[in-house]
Design a protein that fits this description.
heterodimer; A: alpha+beta; 5 helices; B: mainly beta; Methylamine Dehydrogenase, Chain H; Immunoglobulin-like; 10-stranded mixed sheet; 6-stranded mixed sheet; 45 strands
Chain lengths: 206, 653
């Protein structure tokens, strides 16, 4: 149970990487942009990969009537997400410590993991909603209007994850370091649960 | 009849035999296989980079062109001494001060000898210097933005040809006069030239941080023609060498009268000694009038200042600082090998190359082995300074460069070839023709302690039939050779722009990563900038109307302007708000008696327009900036001179 507790603590602390590293990254390459433009999505806001990338993405997007990339204060997510992540990290560390001193059942580890999963799914759902709105809620007076074969306006929604071709742009959307740390951390808490369970089972069989 | 037929058949068979033999010979040994091998050596696949930059002087274009090696592709023309309507250099309010001189605005020059800055005798790739020959000037071009940043006029000089070579730590950029003149200038009979005219050799100090130039001193030499120069390096650092011709001091029909002396001189100048003399207060401040033009990258503007005096030194004031080395037959180039030991005099009317030894020169000075003097300057005995000569190397030697492997490469104008020879043994190793009548040649870093001896290119004066005919006037040609082997191999023939004299070349990696992509808008300190659309405005100051305008894909702000009147002088101050690589915008307005503006991201440029007719006049973006480039346009309403219409401006209303 001691090892499980330590792993639980480490797993939870890895969440804090999201304060330093981006959760997600979207790169936009095109014939005219051999060095792609890029957005790093942090839990506290969106930043350009290179200094002027956001400005240049907004400059291009005005042709198709997309809204400008939101500033941190323009989206509630960027003030709530940091609090949720910090809260979950603290909660995980407390559970880990209590587990270490055997003051608490290993099932709490799984409980934390499930809560984090639910929050993560909600976060992804919210992120996807924003991408959809960003990519399809277009200015009706946009300079360039592109329609699908059925006549409906084309959406410029970047993929939630993976690659997609949007007009002349090759769009790649993948987790970044902070995101990977989050996944590793969550897997560690699952391992902590499994180790705790094994230790507990050993005890009962003895 | 039968016999005749038989004989004919036999003859035909023999002929076929010959031709097929000939064919097989060609395809086996031949030019086909060789040619494809050579093609690979100069082929830079699409999207890949050349390994070297080459900066070629523009000659009578007054500019500097940037090429890639080994492909021979031209990347850019950098305007230096000439107006350049392509981007408005020399036309805009910001850049016209660059072409100010003591003679007023001079919109053209003849640029000759680019030289890249050095640290410890090795190319550092910070700046490139080039001389304007006709109205004596030296320019400094930044190798981070590839723009001319500074031009200084050289007083007391005429035909600024033995320039703009730098010392091995870029302490000085040196400018010598080809034409001696009265100093100071005055009204006097031309026939009194001899003994009265002076040749000024100018040492311009270069600030090690900013590169700013300032004339430290001028040496007023006898009235010879100072043709070319080169710095000492390594052991000879601290010395500078100038070739002379017309030591006869003829003032007419120089073709004959300046070719009488069997030997002219290479002037060896101990500049460290003169610098010390000057630092201790030596020399005389002499009244002068010369322009110093400086471009400020933050304000995006040039300013021109007239300087009113210059420090001059007469050779007799500093004994032991200047010596003359006799050199046969009106030497043209003087070139110093990477070690600094050998000083090559290219006697252009000779078949031989004369090579002097720096060590022998110092010994001769110590032993006072002199052969008289010229105007008090000691002449060292020819035999006592001669290291050797390359015998019968070719006809009309002009210039020599070095590969850093102990070999010299000399151009021969009359016999139209480059000859490779060995330093020390003076034997000729190889010769290759050029097409035609080669002037200078360049090896990357060939004028430094450490040449990069892979490529050499020859710049020719005559092109004739090398390319498809284009009428009597044509560009010049250059040939690129691989010099990595024992024998030179001709790789490529490519046209050059203007008339390149000398060129400087450098491995790409030394500068390519320092090159700017944009100018930062937040560092723009132009006094009439507008860094966002809310700062745009139109202001009347008497008859002058200042339009603070911005550009961003794909509109001007403002794009409708009213209240301008006939007789006004309108200044379009255009700031490009883009901060994206390679998104310039252009600006042109109908009837402007000037050139367009080409405004780089983050930059401000000003076009002056004096409307002469009432009407509504369009302006537009001249650089195809975006998909909506054709929509990037606007109108200025011009009312009669007595109109009471107030200024107004708008965008999207």
């Amino acid at each position: 149970m001691k090892t499980a507790g330590i792993i639980m603590i480490i797993g939870s602390l890895l969440l804090l990487g999201l304060f330093k590293f981006p959760l997600w990254n979207i790169m936009l390459g095109a014939p005219q942009y051999p060095d792609p433009l890029g957005m790093d999505i942090y839990i506290t806001g969106i930043q350009g990969v290179d200094e002027f990338d956001l400005q240049n993405i907004d400059g291009l997007n005005h042709y198709i009537g997309m809204k400008t990339i939101p500033k941190p204060e323009e989206m509630w997510e960027f003030s709530v997400f940091p609090k949720v992540i910090l809260g979950m990290a603290i909660l995980g560390v407390i559970i880990g410590i209590l587990g270490f001193f055997k003051k608490l059942n290993y099932k709490f580890f799984l409980g934390w993991f499930l809560l984090m999963t639910v929050l993560g799914v909600l976060g992804m759902y919210d992120f996807n909603n924003w991408l959809t709105d960003y990519g399809s809620n277009l200015d009706p007076n946009a300079i360039i209007k592109v329609t699908n074969p059925d006549g409906s306006p084309m959406s410029y929604k970047p993929p939630l994850i993976g690659y997609q071709k949007l007009l002349n742009f090759d769009v790649d959307s993948w987790p970044h370091i902070g995101g990977y740390l989050l996944f590793v951390g969550m897997i560690l808490t699952l391992i902590a649960f499994w180790l705790g369970r094994r230790a507990s089972l050993k005890k009962t069989t003895q | 009849m039968k016999n005749i037929l038989k004989t004919s058949v036999a003859l035909v068979s023999i002929l076929i035999g010959f031709t097929s033999c000939n064919n097989s010979g060609k395809s086996n040994g031949g030019s086909g296989a060789l040619a494809s091998n050579v093609a690979e050596k100069v082929y830079v696949p699409p999207g890949e980079y050349d390994s070297h930059y080459a900066f070629m002087s523009g000659g009578y274009s007054g500019n500097l062109t940037v090429y890639g090696l080994p492909s021979g592709r031209m990347f850019k023309e950098i305007p230096v001494f000439s107006q350049f309507p392509t981007n408005g250099y020399g036309y805009t309010e910001e850049t016209t001060p660059m072409l100010e001189t003591s003679y007023g605005f001079v919109p053209w020059d003849d640029s000759h000898h680019p030289d890249i800055s050095q640290t410890d005798g090795v190319l550092d790739g910070r700046w490139i210097f080039i001389n304007g020959n006709n109205t004596p000037r030296i320019a400094r071009i930044s190798l981070t933005n590839f723009e001319t940043e500074e031009i200084i006029e050289v007083p007391n000089s005429a035909g600024n040809h033995s320039s703009s070579y730098i010392t091995e730590n870029t302490e000085y950029v040196v400018a010598g006069t080809r034409f001696s003149v009265p100093v100071p200038q005055r009204d006097m009979p031309i026939k009194d030239y001899k003994g009265n005219f002076k040749g000024a050799l100018t040492f311009i100090s270069v600030d090690p941080e900013e590169g700013h130039m300032d004339i430290k001193f001028q040496i007023l030499m006898p009235g010879f023609n100072y043709d070319l120069s080169h710095p000492g390096r390594g052991k000879s650092h601290g010395w500078f060498f100038f070739t002379t011709y017309n030591t006869e001091e003829a003032n007419s029909l120089l073709e004959v009268n300046a070719s009488q002396n069997d030997k002219d001189f290479i002037a060896a100048i101990n500049w460290k000694k003169i610098e010390e003399y000057v630092n201790n207060g030596g020399g005389t401040m002499m009244p002068a009038n010369y322009a110093h033009n400086l471009y400020d990258e933050d304000t995006h503007m040039a300013t021109s200042t007239m300087k009113k005096e210059v420090r001059v030194v007469n050779p007799s004031e500093v004994p032991g600082a200047i010596y003359l080395l006799p050199t046969p037959k009106s030497p043209h180039g003087v070139d110093v090998d990477p070690s600094g030991e050998y000083i090559v005099g290219n006697g252009k009317l000779s078949a031989n190359l004369t090579v002097h030894s720096f060590t022998k020169m110092i010994d001769a000075i110590e032993n006072k082995e002199f052969d008289g003097d010229a105007y008090g300057i000691p002449i060292i005995k020819f035999e006592d300074v001669l290291a050797g000569s390359v015998e019968q190397a070719g006809l009309g030697p002009l210039h020599t460069e070095f590969d850093g492997k102990g070999n010299g490469y000399t151009t021969f104008f009359i016999s139209s070839e480059v000859v490779k020879w060995k330093l020390g043994t003076w034997e000729v190793l190889d010769r290759k023709p050029t097409y035609y009548s080669v002037g200078h040649l360049t090896i990357p870093g060939g004028n430094s302690r450490e040449p990069f001896g892979k490529y050499m290119f020859a710049m020719n004066k005559i092109t004739k039939d090398r390319y498809l005919p284009v009428g009597p006037e044509m560009e010049h040609s250059a040939q690129l050779y691989d010099i990595s082997g024992d024998k030179m191999e001709l790789l490529l023939d490519f046209p050059t722009h203007g008339e390149p004299h000398y060129a400087a070349a450098i491995p790409a990696e030394i500068i390519m990563n320092n090159v700017k992509k944009i100018y930062r808008l937040d560092e723009n300190e132009h006094p009439r900038k507008a860094t966002n659309e809310s700062e745009t405005k139109v202001v009347r100051e008497g008859k002058n109307v200042h339009i603070y305008m911005t550009t961003i894909r794909s509109h001007f702000s403002p794009d409708n302007i009213e209240g301008v009147k006939v007789g006004d002088k309108v200044f379009f101050h255009v700031t490009n708000l883009e901060q994206d690589f390679d998104v310039p915008h252009g600006f042109a307005v109908i009837g402007a008696n000037t050139a367009e503006l080409l405004v780089m991201p983050g930059q401000t440029r000003t076009l002056t327009w004096e409307p002469k007719q009432v009407g509504v006049w369009p302006f537009y973006c001249t650089d195809f900036c975006s998909a909506l480039h054709q929509e990037m346009q606007g109108y200025v309403r011009v009312s009669p001179a007595d109109s009471n219409l107030d200024l107004s401006w708008s965008l999207g209303e």
